[in-house]
C-alpha cells in the first residue's frame, strides 16, 4: 500500500464564541484519487474546536503552542451524504473537551462543504461509466485516506505520543472507522462506535434480508400505536393514486407517488420516528378533509422527510457501502428492491413502474382481507430505482444512468475491510450496539464484534439508532465507562 501524503492546508480561519469555544475553520486539499495523485484534487472542509479560556496572565508562546497540540478526537458522521453540524450544536463537543481532547468535525469528500457531489459535478465527468468511476472515489476506502492525510497534516509538529488520534463513528461513521482500523491502525489511539458495527462479512442481499425483518416489526409497532392510521394511510394512498397519473407535483420538482409516499418509514428507526410519521399522515389527511387536496406547506413538510435530492450521495452510494471484493460477492443490482419485492408487505415495490392497473389496486388484489383493514407497510432507509426516475427530485433523475452502472458493478478496486487485520487489532474499540436497530442489524453487528479483537460492546434494547443525538448524555456516559473501567 502506497504511503499517504499529508493533506495540504489551504486556509485556516479562527473564531471565538465568547466565553465558550475556540473554533477554527479549515480547508484542505487532497488527491481526488489517492492511487493516482496526478488526477487532480478535491477540497475537504472541517472545523476544529477546543476550549477558549482567558488566562489570568498572558501565556507564553510555548504555552500557546502546547494548547494547540491537545490530542484530537475526530467525529465521523452517519449517512453517507451529510455534513457536520456546527460544533456548538454537537453534544460531543463539550463531552470531549472536558475530557482533554480537541475535536475535529471533518465533512467527508462529497458532503457538506467538501467538494460536494451534485448532478452537475457528476455529469461533467463524461458518460455514465465515467460518472460511476468518479462516484466510486467517494466510498470509505477513499474517506479513510483523506482522514489519514489530514491527520498527518494537523499533527506533523506534535510529540510522537500525540500524533495518533481518536475517532468517534456514528452509523456509517462506524463503517468508516472499521475501514480505518483495517487500513491505517497506526493512526488511531482509540475508536468509539455507536450503531456502526458494519456487516463486514455480508453481501447487500444478506443485509437487506435482515433489515426488512426489523422494518416489519417497526411497521407493526406503528400501527399498534396508531391503529386509526390503517384506514387513513389507505385513504391518502387512494388520493395519491387517483389525483395524478404520474404523481402529485412536489414543490422542489419531484412527484408524490404511492411508492415515494410509502418510503416515509425511514423515520421509524429513530426515537420519536413513529410520532413523526403519524403527525405528517394526520396533516395530509386534514388537508383532504378541509381542501380535498394537499397544501403546498404539507407537501413541503413531506419533502423534508425525503431529502435524497438535496443529499444525492446518500442515495447513489447507499448500496455501494456494502459492495466488496470479498467472498465473490455479486453486484448489488438494486438489492433492496429485489429483496423487498419478494416480501408480501412490500409487494407495492414491484408495482412502482407499472402503469396499469394502479399500484393500489394490484396491491389490494394480493390480499385476502378487506382493503380498509389491511395496513400498507412503509419502507425504511432503502433506496430504490424509482428514486432516480424523477419521483424523488430532478437532481437524482439526472444521475440515473450512473446509478444503474454502479448497481451493475461487480468489480471494485479494493476491499473496504481487512478481516485478518481486524482479528489482530490492537487499537482499543468501544461500541454501543442497539438490539432494535432498524438500519444496522443487531445480529450482523454481533458477528462483526466477534471479529474485532479488543472490542468492548454494550448491547441495549433501550435505545434506537439515533441515540447519540436523542440520548446523548447517556450514550457518552456508557462509552467512556467502557473505556475507563478496567476488566480483569
TrEMBL record:
Keywords, comma-separated and alphabetical: Hydrolase
Pfam families for this protein: Abhydrolase_1
Which InterPro entries is this protein grouped with? AB_hydrolase_1, AB_hydrolase_fold, Peptidase_S33, Serine_prot/Carboxylest_S33
> Mind telling me which Gene3D superfamilies this protein's record contains?
alpha/beta hydrolase
State if Hydrolase is listed as a keyword: yes
Name assigned to this protein: Alpha/Beta hydrolase protein
Residues covered by the AB hydrolase-1 domain: 73-207
Tree of life domain: Eukaryota
Similarity comment text for this entry: Belongs to the peptidase S33 family.
Q: Which GO terms describe its biological process?
A: proteolysis
A Gene Ontology molecular function term of the record? peptidase activity
Amino acid at each position: 500500500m502506497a504511503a499517504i501524503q499529508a493533506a495540504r492546508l489551504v486556509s485556516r480561519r479562527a473564531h471565538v464564541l465568547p466565553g465558550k469555544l475556540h473554533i477554527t475553520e479549515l480547508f484542505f486539499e487532497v488527491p481526488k484519487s489517492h492511487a493516482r495523485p496526478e488526477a487532480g484534487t478535491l477540497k475537504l472542509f472541517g472545523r476544529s474546536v477546543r476550549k477558549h479560556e482567558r488566562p489570568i496572565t498572558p501565556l507564553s508562546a510555548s504555552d500557546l503552542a502546547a494548547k494547540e497540540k491537545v490530542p484530537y478526537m475526530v467525529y465521523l458522521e452517519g449517512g453517507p451524504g451529510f455534513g457536520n453540524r456546527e460544533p456548538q450544536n454537537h453534544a460531543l463537543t463539550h463531552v470531549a473537551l472536558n475530557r482533554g481532547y480537541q475535536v475535529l468535525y471533518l465533512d467527508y469528500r462529497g458532503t457538506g462543504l467538501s467538494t460536494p457531489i451534485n448532478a452537475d459535478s457528476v455529469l461533467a465527468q463524461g458518460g455514465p461509466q465515467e460518472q460511476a468511476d468518479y462516484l466510486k472515489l467517494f466510498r470509505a476506502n477513499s474517506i479513510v485516506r483523506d482522514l489519514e492525510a489530514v491527520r498527518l497534516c494537523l499533527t506533523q509538529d506534535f510529540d510522537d505520543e500525540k500524533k495518533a488520534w481518536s475517532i468517534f463513528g456514528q452509523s456509517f461513521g462506524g463503517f468508516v472507522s472499521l475501514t480505518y482500523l483495517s487500513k491505517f491502525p497506526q493512526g488511531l489511539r482509540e475508536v468509539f462506535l455507536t450503531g456502526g458495527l458494519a456487516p463486514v462479512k455480508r453481501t447487500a442481499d444478506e443485509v437487506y434480508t435482515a433489515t426488512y425483518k426489523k422494518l416489519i416489526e417497526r411497521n407493526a409497532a406503528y400501527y399498534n400505536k396508531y391503529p386509526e392510521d390503517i384506514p387513513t394511510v389507505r385513504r391518502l394512498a387512494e388520493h395519491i393514486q387517483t389525483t395524478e397519473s404520474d404523481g402529485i407535483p412536489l414543490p422542489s420538482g419531484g412527484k408524490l407517488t404511492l411508492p415515494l409516499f410509502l418510503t416515509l418509514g425511514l423515520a421509524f428507526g429513530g426515537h420519536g420516528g413513529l410520532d413523526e410519521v403519524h403527525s405528517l399522515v394526520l396533516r395530509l389527511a386534514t388537508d383532504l378533509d378541509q381542501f380535498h387536496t394537499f397544501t403546498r406547506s404539507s407537501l413541503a413538510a413531506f419533502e423534508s422527510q425525503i431529502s435524497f435530492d438535496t443529499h444525492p450521495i446518500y442515495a447513489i452510494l447507499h448500496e455501494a457501502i456494502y459492495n466488496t471484493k470479498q467472498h465473490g460477492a455479486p453486484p448489488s443490482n438494486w438489492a433492496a428492491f429485489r429483496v423487498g419485492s419478494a416480501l408480501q408487505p412490500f409487494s407495492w415495490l414491484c408495482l412502482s413502474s407499472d402503469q396499469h392497473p394502479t399500484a393500489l389496486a394490484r396491491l389490494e388484489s394480493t390480499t385476502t382481507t378487506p382493503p380498509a383493514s389491511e395496513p400498507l407497510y412503509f419502507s425504511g432507509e432503502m433506496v430504490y430505482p424509482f428514486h432516480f426516475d424523477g419521483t424523488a427530485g430532478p437532481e437524482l433523475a439526472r444521475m440515473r444512468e450512473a446509478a444503474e452502472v454502479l448497481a451493475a458493478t461487480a468489480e471494485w478496486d479494493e476491499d473496504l475491510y481487512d478481516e485478518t487485520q481486524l482479528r489482530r487489532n490492537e487499537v482499543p474499540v468501544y461500541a454501543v450496539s442497539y438490539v432494535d436497530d432498524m438500519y444496522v442489524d443487531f445480529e450482523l453487528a454481533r458477528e462483526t464484534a466477534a471479529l474485532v479483537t479488543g472490542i468492548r460492546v454494550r448491547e441495549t434494547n433501550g435505545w434506537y439508532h439515533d441515540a447519540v443525538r436523542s440520548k446523548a448524555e447517556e450514550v457518552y456516559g456508557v462509552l467512556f465507562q467502557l473505556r475507563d473501567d478496567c476488566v480483569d
